[in-house]
Amino acid sequence: xxxxxxxxxxGPGRTADGHRVELLLNLGGEEPESAAAxxxxxxxxxxxxxxxxxxxxxPTVEEQRTVYAELFRAxxxxxxxxxxxxxxxxxxxxxADPGTEPNPAxxxxxxxxxxxxxxxxxxxxxxxxxxxxxxxxxVRVMAPMIATPEEAEEFAALARGAGLTEVxxxxxxxxxxxxxxxxxxxxxxxSIGTNDLSQYTLAADRTLDTLPDLLDxxxxxxxxxxxxxxxxxxxxxxxxxxxxxxxxxxxxxxxLVGLGVTGLSMAAPALPAVRHALAGHSLRDCRDLAALALExxxxxxxxxxxxxxxxxxx
Length: 314
Ligand code: PEP
Ligand code: MG
Description:
It contains 14 helices and 8 strands. With 314 residues, the protein is an alpha/beta fold. It has an 8-stranded parallel β-barrel, surrounded by 4 helices. Magnesium ion binds at residues 144, 172, 193, 195-196.
């Protein structure tokens, strides 16, 4: 076992029995060079709204291309997953402001910007596609807040029309999780945003600190939805990632893999512990742990059951 762990301390993520799990980085406005120094297989979530927070006016296609190309070059050869702008009243970008809304979390945010400012999204996709072409980088692109298969199809058409080849949807709205099969039929991959999927599934505002138990990513209802998406991915042979905070908890990461998740994207500090947890458990172990979590009555019991059954080294 020690040899397995030492060998797995760098390079691609894998379980003890060699099942590959992509280990990826979540990025916002970090320095490309220092971000690329982390031991990961690439970027699983680039929150592009953070690149332009200080801009009062929309960056031109050329300005955007320069920013994306710098990042793609820094990650030379590794995948970079670009999430299109996720601006909304709660994450305002002056140039993509939907105006005031009584319920920003339920308003015009994420992919919904295609309803009010389709050209803005088109220009962003053009800039990403040009940067990908100029650098020869391995680029995936995905849209946040996809709620229906129809929206997945619209986004895929826009992105492919711009010249991008690997197109995905962030699943963070329960309606998209319930119809994950149909969403996955229209895109090449999905990535589950567990932060928002918790908020919308449990009807608990993620910006409040008064509802931590409802927002706990160990909530069995959330895990059932993840399992549903994982099963759809397996049926269709398409990748299913997780890019929310849940992926950064080593015990929960095991459960997610057991539910069919094929890639985990997280903030850099979480990578070593998640890598180590995976290396100490087989895919079969992960599936058994997932079954325990799904059966539990509460998030606390789910975590306790998995804690007791997992290797104590996690
Ligand atoms: C999420 O919702 O889980 C996610 C990854 O995106 P964000 O936290 O930026 O909404
Ligand atoms: Mg989100």
